[in-house]
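Hi C.,

You asked whether I'd gotten around to modeling the 122-residue construct. I have! Everything is below, sequence then structure, no commentary in between.
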Amino acid sequence: MSAARTVTVHTTDRGAVTIPEPSWCVDSHDHRPEALCDTSHRGPEHLAVFYGYEVARAELAQYPHAEESDRGIGGFVEMGHLARTLTPGELDELAALLVDYAGTLRHLARQLSVLRTQEAGR
């Protein structure tokens, strides 16, 4: 069994603070100092990129010293105007929605293909 990991973060309200760091965290924690309650742990980014455009980003996130929100691990998702930390159930719901929408896009692609073929035959 390996020793618990820790990281020292520089905060604006408490100075240098050493906190436990989860094994999934890949954040370097070297960004500008912030209040301890705003200190977070971040996992690897999972991007959806379409023709060079970032469509979505998701990563594990945790704010272990949060004062006004859940301190547990969540899935942080950014999609258009959606940018929030989700529970496991909410992540599953979002995944189901995206799978369904992918079917919609595939249907539209087939429909477009038929329409373009028809238009070319005129």
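If it helps when you're writing up: The mean pLDDT is 87.

Thanks,
B.
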